[in-house]
Structure formats: C-alpha cells, structure tokens
C-alpha cells in the first residue's frame, strides 16, 4: 500500500527539527541514526516516534557529557559500578539487575548512567516490569534519577502500549519533566484516541512552565483532526501561534489532510492557496494530499489543473503525484492517458515504481488485454523496476479468468526464482483456477506445497478444492478434504457444505446428502436457500417427486425458499450439472 503523502513529509519534518535543535555534542553520531534515505517511507507513527527517539538520544548525549570529568580532574575508581557498566554493555540484563540489587543490599549506590542503559535494555525487550524495578531501586537508594532516566522509562512504557503507567511515572518524577517527557506521553495518548487527556497534559505542561514545541502542537493537531475534527485543530493552531510557536509545512499538511478527510476539499484548496501568506510555502506533499482527494471524488479536471499549476510554481511532482493520477486514470479505463503519464515521469526526474505499473497492468487485465498487460510487465522489468507480489497476483487472477490456467501455474512456480514468494492469495487463485478446469489433482499438489511451506490455507482454499472435486464426482475425496480442514481449525462455510450436498445428490445419494445436511445443522452452520433447493432437486432427480413437492411447499410457507425457485419439469440441477 502506498504511503500517504503527508506521512512521508513527517520524516523531512523530523530531520528539519533535528537540524534546528541539534546540540554541538556528538552531532554526527545522532544524525547518522536518524538521517533520511531516498527509500525511507515509514508510516506517521514510526516517524513521530523517531523524532522523540532523537530527542532522547540528544538529551542522553548531553546527559553523558555533563557527567564526563573536566580536564585535569579524575573520578575516584568505583569497581562495583564499573562492573555493572560492563554487564550492561554485554547485554546481560538479568545479571545486571541482580547485581544492582546486591549493591543496594551492601549499602552501595548504583550509578544512574549504567542503570539508565539497563532500563533502556529491558524496555527494548518489552520487559517494562524489570525496567520499572531498576527505576524503583534508583529512587529508593538515593541515586537520584534525572530527567534522562525518567524519559527512557516513560518511552519504554509508551512503546509497550502502557500510557497509564507512563503517566504514573510522569506524576512521581523527582525532577521537572522536559518537553521530551511530555511529547512522548502525548504521542502515546493521541495514538490511542485519548485526545482529551492529551489536552489536559498540555495545560499541565503550560502550568509547570515547560514550553510546548512545534512537535507538541503537531501531535495534538493531528489527533484533533482524527477525533474532534478540523475545527478544534484550527483552534490549536491559533493557540500555537499565540504561544509564539511557528507552524511549519508539516503542521499545515496535517490540517489539509484533515480537511480532505472531512470532505472539505474547497476549504483545503483555499488553505493551500493562503499558505504563502502564513509564511510557509506548500510543498509537493501539500499538493499530493489535495490531488488524492480530487481524484477520489472524481474531479479529474481540477486534479489535472492543480498538477499543471504545481509545476508552473516550481514545485516538482514526485512519484506519488504521478501514481495518484495514473491510478485514477486506470480505474476510469483511460489506459492510453495513463500510459502517456507513465512515460512522462522521467521528464520530471521521477522513476516509476511498482505502484506506478500495477494499476496499468490491472487495467489491461480488467479489459482482458493480456498481451498489453504482459508487455507492460516486460517494460517494467527492462526499466529496472521489479514486480512485487501484487503485480503477480493481478496477472495470476487475470490468467485464470481468461482460461490460461497452465500459464498461471507456470508463473506461480517461477515466482520464488524471481525473488517474490507466493502468498495465500497467489495459491488460492491458482487452486481455484485448476479446480474450475477439472485439474483437482494439481490443485491438491499446490495445497500440499502450501502446507509444506508453513503457509496456512483458509476457507477459500478448501471451498475451491471441494467444489472442484464434487464437480468431478470425487465426493469421497471432497469429504476427506472437508475433514482435513476441520482438523486444522478451519470452520467450513455454507458454500463447502452445499458443494458436498450437491455432489452427493448428483450421485443420487440423496439420503447421504440429507445426513450431511443434518451434520451442517448440528455444526451450527446456517443453511442457505441454495442448500434447500439442491435437496429438493436431489429428491426429484431420484424420482421422489412427492417428497420433494411436500418439502418445497413447507419451505415456501415458512419463507425459506421462493415459490418459483424450483422447476421440477426442467430441473434446477441443470446449472449444477445434475441433469
């Protein structure tokens, strides 16, 4: 799935804030961890957490620097804490905790630097209980944990999804929380749709004299757009400006995105146009958000106009910009225009990716133009863009629908050689195709291959196989498959029951079919109209016309089946191959 436009921009926002606030202490090391690469497109949550992560790293570097002896002075040796530091560096978390506990018993005071590292180590492994134990020891031993130690603990709790525990630690801090502390907890609360508590925490932050920063307000504005709507988000924007905190392009993009999601596209466009007057020029992400909204509401003319305007203003479109437009054109069946746009991407310095080609391939497959789809695939590979599993699944589906199941089988078997492992839908597509053309033997082989690879089949896999086997008259094998699926914990649906009941009726084994119907009821599966219709026609097919008529009348009187569904003279089973 393609990353939303403004989410990608959040990474750039993070780097900007890093550059603006970076302290001179260890700058290169910090930037190396959080630098932006061309391929990095993590989601918004990860990007925002990276921002907090950098703040923690920056603060920790200051923290360590502040404890480094000045030139000409040396600390007295502390064998216990030096040993603790070695244990922590070796990753021996449990042994480190035991050693800290033994130090306290012997009346020694643990150093907060290795203990902070130990807390971080436990948190990274999701062992927040152990991390909290270390913090508790520090608090009770007189070691006086500082804001860095608390921030590490709070960040660990937030990452583990424990916002209430994080708030508890915040409340009991023996030192003043800083903006990193609050931002970490705010992000955790807002991620869990707890905006009200987030706003209360903002008030507390202001009361304690801790100034919110750009990131603080962006978190809250984002949450307000999701929970309360753009109106409250705009109030936060006004408050942000009043407090002397200048919004940046990411803050504005969050608001534009919120407006578009609320269907307020006209306001979003006006907001985009006014951004320069706010001292902030819109970027490609700003335009992409609106382009996507225009296309999703069918406003192609407006989207085309905006695309041209952004180029005229010197805002170069990105791959995402082109992909939005290509996807729209392909959905509308305008394949020629989509191809033209795809070929023009290089003129704007954009290299098409799989998300550029996939809609085109899907569009040609939908129009049953397999030659054009394969031609597009070849072009894709020749340009150095390798297909992904979505590309192949699209082709597999189209080939099977077009009756070219042998070609689909060959493609499936070659996927791993192409560096693309088949997934459940890949196998399901081919198994269904094989079952429909009467090659259930090969379909069963693919089922075994799935199981061998540890890929769990689902009810669709078995429904295709059972239907195929019953069509071939292999009802015994179908029932065996039915029993197998129950053994591995898959609950059969009405389609599977109906297939077996139909297969038994085709073999004029209506009594067994009725027994299987009884099993269906006892298993808690609800029969469908087709279930009853198959049984009625099965009785008729065996010459039990009176019983069939009586059952039909009773079911009609109860409103279970329609009166005209069954036609005893022509035989309803004809479509099922039973006449």
Short characterization:
By secondary structure, this protein is an all-alpha fold.
Describe this structure in words.
- It holds the Pfam family PPR_1.
- This is Pentatricopeptide repeat-containing protein.
- It is found in: Mitochondrion.
- The protein is mainly α and about 575 residues long.
- Helix content is about 70%, strand content about 0%.
- The protein is built from 31 helices and no strands.
- α8 packs parallel to α10 (about 180-190).
- The two termini are about 45 Å apart.
Shape: extended
Total E-strand runs: 0
Number of helices: 31
Low-confidence stretches: 4-76, 568-579
PPR repeats: 111-145, 146-176, 178-212, 213-247, 248-282, 283-317, 318-352, 353-387, 388-422, 423-457, 458-492, 493-527, 528-562
Subcellular location: Mitochondrion
Family: Belongs to the PPR family. P subfamily.
Organism: Zingiber officinale
């Amino acid at each position: 799935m393609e990353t939303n436009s403004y989410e990608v921009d959040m990474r750039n926002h993070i780097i900007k804030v890093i550059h603006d606030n970076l302290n001179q202490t260890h700058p290169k090391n910090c930037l190396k961890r959080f630098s932006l690469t061309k391929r990095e497109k993590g989601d918004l949550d990860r990007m925002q957490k990276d921002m907090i992560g950098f703040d923690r790293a920056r603060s920790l570097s200051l923290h360590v620097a502040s404890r480094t002896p000045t030139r000409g002075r040396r600390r007295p040796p502390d064998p216990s804490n030096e040993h603790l530091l070695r244990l922590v560096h070796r990753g021996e978390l449990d042994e480190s905790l035991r050693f800290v506990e033994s130090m306290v018993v012997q009346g020694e005071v643990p150093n907060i630097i290795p203990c902070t590292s130990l807390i971080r180590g436990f948190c990274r492994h999701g062992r927040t209980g152990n991390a909290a134990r270390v913090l508790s020891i520090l608090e009770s031993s007189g070691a006086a944990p500082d804001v860095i130690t608390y921030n590490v603990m709070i960040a660990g709790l937030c990452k583990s999804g424990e916002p209430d525990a994080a708030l508890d630690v915040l409340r009991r801090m023996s030192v003043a929380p800083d903006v990193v502390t609050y931002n970490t907890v705010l992000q955790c609360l807002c991620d869990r749709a707890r905006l009200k508590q987030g706003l209360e925490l903002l008030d507390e932050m202001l009361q304690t004299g801790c100034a919110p920063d750009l990131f603080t307000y962006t978190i809250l504005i984002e949450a307000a757009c999701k929970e309360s709507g753009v109106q409250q988000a705009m109030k936060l924007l006004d408050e942000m400006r009043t407090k002397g905190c200048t919004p940046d392009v990411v803050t504005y993009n969050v608001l534009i995105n919120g407006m578009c999601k609320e269907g307020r596209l006209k306001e979003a466009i006006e907001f985009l146009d006014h951004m320069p007057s706010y001292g902030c020029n819109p970027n490609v992400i700003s335009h992409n958000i609106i382009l996507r909204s225009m296309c999703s509401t069918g406003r192609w003319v407006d989207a085309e106009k905006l695309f041209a305007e952004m180029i005229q203003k010197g805002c170069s479109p990105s791959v995402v910009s082109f992909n939005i437009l290509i996807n729209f054109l392909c959905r509308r069946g305008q394949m020629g225009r989509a191809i033209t746009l795809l070929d023009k991407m290089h003129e704007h310095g954009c290299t098409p990716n799989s998300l550029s080609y996939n809609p085109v391939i899907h569009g040609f497959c939908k129009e049953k133009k397999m030659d054009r789809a394969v031609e597009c695939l070849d072009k894709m590979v020749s340009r150095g863009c390798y297909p992904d599993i979505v590309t192949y699944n699209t082709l597999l589906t189209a080939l099977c629908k077009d009756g070219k199941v042998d070609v689909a089988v060959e493609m499936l078997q070659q996927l791993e050689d192409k560096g693309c492992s088949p997934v459940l839908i890949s196998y399901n597509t081919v198994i269904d195709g094989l079952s429909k053309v009467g090659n259930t033997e090969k379909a069963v082989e693919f089922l075994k291959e799935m199981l061998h690879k540890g890929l769990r089949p689902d009810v669709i896999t078995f429904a295709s196989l059972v239907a195929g086997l019953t069509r071939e008259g292999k009802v015994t094998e179908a029932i065996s498959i039915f029993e197998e699926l129950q053994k591995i914990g898959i609950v059969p649906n009405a389609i599977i029951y109906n297939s077996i009941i139909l297969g038994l009726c085709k073999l004029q084994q209506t009594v067994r079919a009725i027994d299987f119907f009884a099993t269906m009821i006892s298993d808690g599966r609800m029969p469908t109209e087709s279930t009853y219709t198959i049984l009625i026609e099965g009785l008729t097919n065996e010459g039990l016309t009176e019983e069939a008529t009586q059952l039909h009348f009773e079911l009609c009187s109860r409103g279970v089946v329609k009166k005209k569904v069954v036609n005893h003279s022509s035989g309803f089973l004809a479509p099922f191959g039973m006449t």
